[in-house]
Amino acid sequence: MRRIAVDSVTHNCYRLIREDILSGRLTRGQRLDVPALSREFGVSRSPLMDAVARLAHEGLVVVEARRGSYVARPSARDVREVVQVRVGLELLALELAFPSIDDESLARIEALLPILGRTDEPLSQAAFLESDRRFHEMLVTLAGNSRLTAMVDTISAQVDLFRVELVTPEAAVRAIGAHRSILEALRRRDLQAAQALLRAHIESTGRRALERLQADVSKDQPSSYSGSRYCSIRAPKGHLPGALDTRLNEYVDRGNNELTAIEYGEKPYTEAALADIEKKLQEIADLPRP
After folding, report:
1. Cβ density class 273-282: b for 16+ within 10 Å, e for less
2. What is the extent of the structural domain holding 262?
3. Which of 121, 128, 142, 238 has a beta carbon 3.0–4.6 Å from 97's, enabling a disulfide?
């Protein structure tokens, strides 16, 4: 049993659950079993719920009335938005840091990079993620802007939410190579090159995350809608209100692939499930209400 200090119960609950999410021990879409966590941590439910609310504010957890709390499952749109924000924040951080980056700073950055090839053992996922996180944190810290640092901390957690499943030995080697290229550009005092390399590095992670999401969606059973090869919602025609049928078909006909898999159990659907489906479609696809 993992016992935690009474004087910081909520913070420690938050920290432990957050670590479990970002390490992949709690997977995307997994329900948070509050009673089980209460027993594991040896605490009451109240600080746990406060911790969950904080994680929801960070975008790591989704809280749904009468359904419970779940680890967030990023959609394609989520990934694109997170990558766009991360690129903007980290390029700004690098620009702010650049005038003050000296030989000592470069040495500190280089010390964070794993040295590959010393052993036959591949770099572990945990070791790579820690190295990658500290590298990006160092670039932001050197900017000396506390508000920017706080914003990057929040967006970085959302990046880790989908990045943890992307780490392979090959991906780690590519990322470390990108880090070294950024470092060399800084040594040459070439800010534009360093920013271009940083952008390419972050966007590469985003592309791989989108490819992974698309691969996950393609594994789902296809919908019975005519022409709906882009849609993975398991909702047989005739079991949704007519207006929603029409709207969904129109959306699918446009070839948009933003929809992600939503499962609602056995048909026919209850009114509550139908309302939930419509709400999800509204959120994901931005469809106008009739």
Report:
1. bbebbbeebe
2. 220-290
3. 142
For residue 179, the number of C-alpha atoms closer than 13 Å in the C-beta half-sphere is 25
Residue 201 lies in a domain: yes
Burial class of 265 by CB neighbour count within 10 A (0 to 12, 13 to 18, 19+):
exposed
Per-residue CA distances from 122 to 82, 100, 264 (Å): 29, 35, 41
Cβ neighbours of residue 102 closer than 8 Å, sequence gap 6 or more = none
State whether 164 and 99 are in the same domain: yes
Whether 32 and 71 have beta carbons less than 8 Å apart is answered as yes
Per-residue tokens: 213: 């999401």
Give the CATH number of the domain where residue 12 resides: 1.10.10.10
Contacts of 63 (CB under 8 A, 6+ apart): 52, 53, 56, 69
In a domain, 46, yes or no: yes
Boundary residue ending a domain (14, 39, 71): 71
**Residues 206-221 pLDDT 10s:** 888 888 877 765 554 3
